[in-house]
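#onboarding

Welcome to the new folks! Below is a worked example of what a typical request in this channel looks like: someone posts a single protein sequence, and someone else replies with the predicted structure as tokens. Don't worry about understanding the tokens yet, we'll cover that in week two.

Example request:
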Amino acid sequence: MDSRDRFSTAISHQEPDRVPIDLGGIVTGITKGANRSLKAYLGMEGQDPIVDRIQQLAKPSDALLDRLHVDSRYLYLSASRDWSDIELTDDSYQDEFGVVRKAAYSLNDLLYYDFIDHPLKNAESVADLAKFKWPDPHDPARYAGLEEEARDLYERTGYGVMVNLIGSIFEFSWYLRGYVNFMEDMMVRPEMAEALLDAQLEYQTALMDEMLKRIGGYVSVVMTGSDLGTQRAPMISPETYRTIIWPRYRKLWAFIKSKTQAKLFYHSCGSIVPMIPFLIEGGVDVIHPVQPMATGMGDRKSLKRQFGDRLAFWGGFDQQDVLPNGSPERVRDEAKRLLDEFMPGGGYVFAAGHNIQADVPPENVIALFDTVYEYGRY
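Example response:
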């Protein structure tokens, strides 16, 4: 069984030869600091390029991916959140939407970029929102070489082909408006929230259309998402989600499924158990990252029992404590527990919970991926 079949079998709720292993995506990646440390530990030379500026994610080399037994290979688009960015002062930059981010450092090492300004923060009406000039999702420069690269990966290798673009409506809307403003809009100015969500839906649908008409026949999974949860609870009520957010996502998901046979992936950090039935009803095939320290998400047996016949799980490893702070032995033990609870009957893909951060010891990364490769066999 090759990697592509392994993904397809697992996500279809059947047991492959072993659990498929993923690394390298926008929410399943590795930061440049962790990538650098890991390559040094393994005696691999060279620095891998940055493919996501905000999160400082590296594009892992094929040699590193092979060492970690990774079954996926990612396409990295020009149509990223950083496309056509403008350098400002004081380690900050403005992306093509007008969102401004500033660098955050630790011990002189750049870790990520955080928000400092939002282009629609002062909008007072739907008419103000309508004046916003959206980037052009149809610009062919965004997709230069994408189809050729996807076809090459598909025809030349047996890997699962993924694309480093995540369709987000809710989260990317508050990027433009500001988090507090957008949350207030949903409560007291719902017409503004809905107008912005509709515009974001139109933009994301156009991006997906341009992408899928080029590579829809080659990709294994299409990634969508928006963070819906905090550590303790959903960040909005299930009713607000059902009435305002979910209808827009249903339209995006239906559009994606009309353009490709690839499985539909949804990413949300945090505690989101009340939202899971909506995701399933909307057509989502896979949920990620199943954050175990968030309320309700750590009971993997219960999640598998309630939803495992309709939803595949992707991730689930404790990245907040065990991976950065545990010993390699503790990492191995937790990986085995994770597999024991999620892998029976299929419906599980392994990833490291979320992007591997700079403070994760390379010994723990090796222990984790090697354990999943060795122990995660059916």
